[in-house]
Specification:
- This protein is α+β, with helices and mostly antiparallel strands and 507 residues long.
- The protein is built from twelve helices and 28 strands.
- The strands form four sheets. It has an eight-stranded antiparallel sheet.
- Strand 8, helix 3 and strand 9 form a beta-alpha-beta unit.
- Helix 4 crosses helix 5 and helix 8 crosses helix 10.
Length: 507
Amino acid sequence: MQSEQTSAGVPARGHVEGQPVLFEQARNDGDEQGPFRLAWRQLVQGVTERTEPWDGVIEAADIIAIVDDMHCSDPTSSYEVLFISQSASILALDSDDEDAAPNTPHLGKLSMSNLPARVLSSHYIPKLPSHLKLSSSVQDASPNLHVIVSSGSGTGFAEIFFSSLLKPLFSAIDLPPSSYLLHTTQSPESVSELTTSQLLPRAHQGISQTVVLLSGDGGVHDVVNALLPPKQPLSADYAPPTLALLALGTGNALAHSLRLTRSTNSLGLRALLRGSPRRLPLFRASFSPGAEILADESRTSIPVPSSSPSGTGIIHGAVVFSYGLHATLVSDSDTTAYRVHGASRFQLAAKDLLYPADGGDPHAYRARLTLNPSSASTNPVSPDKHSYILATLVSNLERNFTISPATPPLPASPHLVRIPPVSSDDLAGLMSAAYKSGAHTADPKVLYTLLPGGLRIDFLEDDARWRRVCVDGTIVRVVKGGWAELAMREGGAVVDVVFDETAVAAS
């Protein structure tokens, strides 16, 4: 494929949909360090006298990929530029404006030739990645590429995203509907049931599988735990399924921390085509017998799965293990009424916890916290009262909420954020500082440390409301006098995740 080797800002002649144009690599006004956008003016008899406005502009953040135009023999159509049209509707998903209801975005496609070299180097994909080129199952000829649309995640945008963006994108790169299996969730158990019935058996047969997950962190959590059922170790032939995340949940902590949404409006579509599988680190959360998982807005509960005669429950996670303010607000905000607010639901619930109706300080959670509980050098943290205890494998809990700035995308390293009892204003200030690139971690009141040896919490609260733990959004209620422990999971890979190293290098 040809391109005109031009320096930044120098026009290059080419074609858009067969029409002669003059390309320019321009940055947004006033942004001398920002990414280049693709802009062009039409040529009439080989010349153009206009300087403004452009006849066409595609922002760099809207470009998903540039691929070879394999469907056209016209030499003026060497490439097909795939981009998001109506990208403002994507940004509305992360907006705090409750009236910013997204319009329908759609996939834009334009045939172009002689694109500027800088544009090609940033976006050109010469071939499909291996995780999208999978052989069908030998037994029944069914595809091993799965698309899971989580209809209840986030603000309910996943189905629209699939029909208007992902499905046409797949068609544009020669992945027709027959090449993948589409699953739309019908209940909170749908992802777990699909994993148990289809992904798990094939993984143990050594079959390569990819799951494109239009969901949030809860979808990843469901897949991981269904792949690790009690009393069923990974077989010697086990092949870790590959998860490709599209950030359509509420917080999307894992997707944001993997930089899938950095400098792009595609919510992970760009990484889907440019990335490659990497092992996803996991932790193991253990709970004393009697611990229960809360469901249906805390109206029902089920026992934490156990493989031990003692009844010790086990849940695995990839994002966060928390007790205190974070766990309580995640639980309190997990209602239909709160979910319509998207990521803002957490801030709304936090206000009630930070500023109690009685005018007092936020609740001080009573528990003994011990670091490195299984080592000879245990480290108890005093006093036995806390505002916030959070262990995490990610850097960001929301797009701009940086809870652990020292945590790299991959391989992740566990970090602890602990805040002692403080006033309402102080705690609110620390939470606000997390939106400033994780500035809260520099405050002397905050314990922020690498957590190689895990932790243990012994609960001292009488009221069950203050004995809730969050594991990747799943809420566990611990019995009175109970405990919880956190450690990194050891052993072989359970799942891989699509990771775009170029996005990290550019961030």
